[in-house]
Amino acid sequence: MKNASLILSFAYLLTLQSAYADENIVMSTKQIQAQGITTAPLPDKQNGEISGLPAQVVIPGNQLFVISTPLPAMIEQTLVGVGDSVKKGQAIAYLQSPALAEAQRGLLQASVQNQLTRENLARDESLLKDGIISESRYRTTRGLALEAQAALSERRQMLRLSGMSDSQIARLQSGNNLSSLLTVTSPIEGVVLEKTASAGQRLDAAVPIFKIARIKPLALEIQAPLNVTHNINIGDTISIPAYAASGKLTAIGHSLTGTNQTVLLRGVILQGAENLRPGQFVEASINTATNNGSQWVVPNSAISRLAGKPMVFVATQQGFRAQAVQILNEGAQNSVISGSLKGDEQIAVRGVSALKSGMMGIGGDK
User: How far is CA 199 from CA 82, 95, 180, 196, in A?
Assistant: First the structure.
């Protein structure tokens, strides 16, 4: 019986809300002042713009490089620091690596073995033509020559991965001068974002030393509520008004984030990137190409909900009227709404709870 009574009371409340939803609230100026109700003009409308979206400036993945130690080594000297600009191929650190000298020795041994097998192959080719040796012996010699050539190619590739250029490898083969000094160079023209090692440190192979990136163009990751994404399309213009930056939308996520249930949007900043820094948090706006409806940014205190539906209270000559609206983007202090509004209305921004109670017949005059 108690549950049945609660259900009937809830149903009555919904019926009451529905009955008052379209009615005007008649109030005198004295009553409005007594209830502490304050009005403000509706802000200028924004056509097809979704603003106030939280976003973070990031570096596109294809512009970010991590430079690691190619071999176990000790850092002898670092030549750049965080924030420095570097050129492609510029030396950024010197390492001392006994493993490099070992790899160079392996190259020289493979080079000598390759030369011997080539000479043997040339001799056996001549002997085969004269009928002195059998073809099977010639095939065996040719197989050994191919194996030696493959071993030499492998040693060269190992030294390339260690940071040696083809010209340095050629000089090593001609001069037989082993060296444990390894020069680390920048793979791109960019800026040093991170430096994770210092002179004197001993590091294993594949340990990061620097993080270098091209910082133009920058990218933007935007967190957008699900209810606004149906108006958004790839190619829409994005902007960061506070920093005079703009660009275009490049991707729309297909899943919701687990923490705040928003959709991740990605864009590229084409103008004003010099005013921003990677990792910076900003507020972004999206100008939708297909949404021509009018939108307004209003304080959250102006929005009320009846039966779960948002509305604002518009001032009239008799008092106020409830106007249903749609919330396109709900922020911490302000929200973006749309609805059947002309744009020249005065809306209640304080004392909204009193108006809601009056509309529902709960105290006060209608």
Answer: 15, 9, 16, 11
